[in-house]
Amino acid sequence: KNQVEQSPQSLIILEGKNCTLQCNYTVSPFSNLRWYKQDTGRGPVSLTIMTFSENTKSNGRYTATLDADTKQSSLHITASQLSDSASYICVASLSGGYNKLIFGAGTRLAVHP
Amino acid sequence: DGGITQSPKYLFRKEGQNVTLSCEQNLNHDAMYWYRQDPGQGLRLIYYSQIVNDFQKGDIAEGYSVSREKKESFPLTVTSAQKNPTAFYLCATKAGVLAGDRYEQFFGPGTRLTVL
Questions:
Q1: By CA distance, what is A33's nearest residue in B?
Q2: Which neighbouring-strand residues pair with A86?
Q3: Which tens digit of pLDDT belongs to each residue from A63-100?
């Protein structure tokens, strides 16, 4: 069964601190791994897209890693800001067909001053 | 959110009523999608359309219907057959079938439907 699992479910950190969110996926045939940021009551916004050949991709203070062998990905947030408070969703894309996306349930991050 | 508009933002429905959620895009994207988001769960695909006048069922199509008469529009109707329609509904677009699987999906701002 194709599935994406994220941990932790929720996380609270202080402003300025770093954090790492985890994602394990069981998807076949695998095409790419995406991370989205979703503010409360809004649509998700893409942060990174990585294929199996890419180990790391950065987008400002966000750095995603991918280990295609262990089927794990992480999203590292550096020097967190209050605006980073959101849900972060890990998404695996299937290869072929219409490239179906398999969504994780997300990690809800709260950054406190 | 880009050039994707969803309306209304909030929608209340009585049991037994059909309601239609609007999704309009000005990105000139060929593919459009409807997802449902429930607390503690990942987004689930309801319907998708890769070209005008064609659409396919997703994983949870029962109780929903769509149309794709124009490239810019992909309305979703939640029918009375949908047993648990209260959820956050998201519309998304992608450049097209030939855009490849690396191309991202862009999401609209969503519509929150509540059944009273």
A1: B102
A2: A109
A3: 999 999 999 999 999 999 999 999 999 999 998 777 78
